[in-house]
Amino acid sequence: MPVSASAVLDALGDANRRAILELLTGGAMAVGVLADRLPISRPAVSQHLRVLKEAGLVTESSAGTRRLYRIDPAGLAVVREYLDGFWKSTLDNFARLAEAEGEREERPA
Amino acid sequence: MSAESGTEIMVHRQVSVPLTPQRAFTLFTARMTESWPSEHSIGSSALAEVVVEPREGGRWFERGADGSECDWGRVAEWAPPGRVVLLWQLGADWRLDPELDTEVEVTFTEEPGGRTRLELRHRHLERYGDQAGATYAVFDSPGGRDGTLHASVELAA
């Protein structure tokens, strides 16, 4: 399922999830380590990690019996997709305007 | 359409229009409001105007219906009618971040038949990754723009 910009923004709409991401900017961490550093329970951390994963902001990998979480650069792909859509709308509008302008002959400056 | 080379991440789009480069340049820069997707306002009131000050170092900002102004970035190069480079300095949270320089280069090339090809390259999107920590932290500031952000992104998604 492609990750949507609104899923990313929903994921970022929660202070605990932003706190988790901030901690992960320092490197990969296990759930327990995250829970120790945050004022929320381990199951709550797991729940937030699930949302972050679904939004494409965090990936999970196994290190022995532990699972580690890290920031997923694919989140950037979402930013790019969003801006691509933004510029597409802008240039579509611009092309329509320009067609209309072109139909009018030389307009007085 | 988009393209990547090396670690640089960018958006690349182009369009051909039936105007001379000079007129296309003026239409794009002096009347940007008319091309702007109006739901993309970063201000607290409805978008009234998008302004590109026509000089190097000029501001690039939006003015709301209530007169308030929100900066998008600034003009890095002003070379009509062929080229303009704007710095888009909005963080992933739609607030101005002077530390973040992503670059919007727009070129206007004459084509046969009195037409002009506009090419737009929004470069250095990888810089959003460099500031990941800072970006997320800013979300905690008072008066965050979650409302605006959600509204604009849902329309675009």
UniProtKB/TrEMBL annotation, chain A:
Any Pfam family matching the protein: HTH_20
GTP-binding as UniProt keyword: no
Keyword list, A-Z: DNA-binding, Transcription, Transcription regulation
SMART domains assigned to the protein according to its UniProt record, in alphabetical order: HTH_ARSR (SM00418)
Record GO terms (molecular function): DNA binding; DNA-binding transcription factor activity
InterPro entries: ArsR-like_HTH (IPR011991), HTH_ArsR_DNA-bd_dom (IPR001845), HTH_MetalResp_TranReg (IPR051081), WH-like_DNA-bd_sf (IPR036388), WH_DNA-bd_sf (IPR036390)
Domain named HTH arsR-type: residues: 1-98
CDD domains (UniProt xref): HTH_ARSR (cd00090)
Name of the molecule in the record: Transcriptional regulator
Automatic annotation (TrEMBL), chain B:
Activator of Hsp90 ATPase homologue 1/2-like C-terminal domain mapped to chain residues: 20-128
UniProt cross-references to InterPro entries, sorted A to Z: ASHA1/2-like_C, START-like_dom_sf
UniProt similarity note: Belongs to the AHA1 family.
CDD domains named in the record: SRPBCC_CalC
Family annotation (Gene3D superfamilies): 3.30.530.20
Coiled-coil residue spans: none
Name of the protein described by the UniProt record: ATPase
Any single Pfam family the record assigns to this protein: AHSA1
